[in-house]
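Troubleshooting log. The previous structure file for this entry was overwritten by mistake, so regenerating from the original sequence record. Sequence copied from the archived sheet and checked twice against the printout by T.R.
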Amino acid sequence: MAAVGSVMLALVSIVGANRADAASLPTSRTVRSVIVITVGNLVWADITPATDPSLFALLKTSALGSMSLQGAHRERPTAPEMYATLGAGARAVVDSSSGDCRRAASQIRCARAAAIVRANRAALFGAEPFALGDALQRGGIGRYLVAPCDAACPVALTLANSRGDVSMFGALADGLRVISQPSKRTVVLVAVPNTSALESLLDGGAQSAIAAADAVLIVSPDTHGRAVALTACIVRASQRFRATELRSATTGRAGIVQMIDIAPTILSLFNLNRPLSMEGRALSSTSTRSSVTSLVTSLRDINTDARLRDRMLGAGAAILAVFELLSVSLFLLVALGRHNTNAEWLRSGMWNQAVELTAAVAIAYVPATFLVRLLPLGDAGHIEFWSALTAATLLAATGGWIVNIRFGRSAAVCVMALTFVVLFADGVTGTHLEFNAMFGYSATAGGRFVGFGNNVFGFFATAAVILAAWLSLRSPRWLAVSLLAVAWLVIALPMFGSDVGGAITMLAAALCCAAMLFEVRVRARTAAIAFVGAGALLGGLALLDASRPADHQTHLGRLVHAVTDNGSSELGRVMHRKWDAGLHVLFHSVGTYVLPVAMLVAAAVWLSTPSIVRARLRSLPAARAAIVGVLIVSVLGSIVNDSGISVAGASWSLAIPFAVFSLSRIDRQTVAGTR
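Regenerated output below.
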């Protein structure tokens, strides 16, 4: 990570000298009035033309998206934190007592504003609460709140300045009347409790004011405890937005935005500079048009897919573990029979075939979890989902077994190749299968929306290493190295995998595997040159990403710009945050306890293998390269990635059944050859 930091710091001067300012002003005409409506618990599944005709009419002229509610904590943020995040443009932390804002005459005052600012200075996200309110005040923009604030009023954290003040109107008509004042630029925030109240607002006295406003934003940061992954986000601003999907540079996925994007969007409407502390970026709209009904359906499906993924994840991981334990148990049982004269029935080749078939099914289960994403299963029940996944798994394993019988190719290799091909194709086409897949990332977590996540990197890199080792036994070794190079490009390139930690890990694994395949002795000087070259290559990728348009940059390019804007402290904060996330997962993940068991199982499998088989494997450079490559992927990948323990879990979940299959097959062939 230190090398990465050095490369980043070296690049910022280049980027800073050759790019337009990240907070540069838009060229289109400024607006004069913006209405922001916050709605409790507004999700796309609840919006229909029959129940919400006025809202649906507004959708026809608006850009639409789903908003992730990811906050500073790993758990769902509280209501004060959500509203503070809207106003900070970065993930803010607020304790329950500090978010207590109350009415004082014609204002709302957040008495503990200073405490909120101090708490966020010590946090890892660099948020500056009240950044939106301060920026609007400096720009001469009036800030008004219309909300039922007889008791605590956390919604005021969105527009309050750093003193904790924001003007308030007790009546909706008074608040909206300022919209019609041509001499004053204003933002009016209206808080309504639910969808029914929003429909009444749009169909009632606010109809003319909303029509007169230059821009209307409808967001739902508070779900009232409801378990939803995404809430609705609606932007009507004909000067800036087409009536299509919203696009966010922080997610890179059309239709998905974040809370941190709202404040920069409001500032951009007024042609005001985005404060450098704002992690979010101004929203834009896509160029592809579709009907409102189909767009709403698509956004609803993203939410239902995410909820399905979250419901099935625990059981899905348990099933994968059962398959692997079953294949290992059968292998150890066969090994026991080999040494027990009273277990003649275990010496039949049928038991070896059972071991191999079970291991092939365990491997096939992984690509099947991604392939079922091709089916519309978001609203499916448990029976339909597991039936589809079982069918896909058995189809993949059967296909590999047929190839094994007809062409003499290893079924495990065939299924491993399927894993590689599926993830490769998904990586170069936008990772649509990975998004909301069982072992992919989901909108619920909200940490990543494009590129390779930790699990997928572990699967893909392990499959690449194993396939390269196998390919070196049957083809020129340069083909195996070429496969590793292609895998690294897919992982590293910003438009594909965009995985910085994965790029570092895969490069190390690829170089070590290549050296072992060619039986090259690696000296300290060679390793140092490779290390420097890897850093330069990573820096080139960062520079390439940073030079792309903001809407297409990944987190790597945005990090370069953040360091350019905020100095080296930004890089230290990001690295600290990732390290903290990794430690949290390390000590709170089931994988932390499962992985040592998996290592013991792997050792038991190896020790149970006949010595003649072990000696044969030791003599093969390909076998040594595969073992070392998998160890690098699992160990180094766990170190350089946040949530890194999942990399090791994913890697071993493919490597162990493949090892069981291969050892069983070699054992069977060895026994047959000695008869």
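The first helix runs from residue 2 to 18. Archived copy saved in two places this time.
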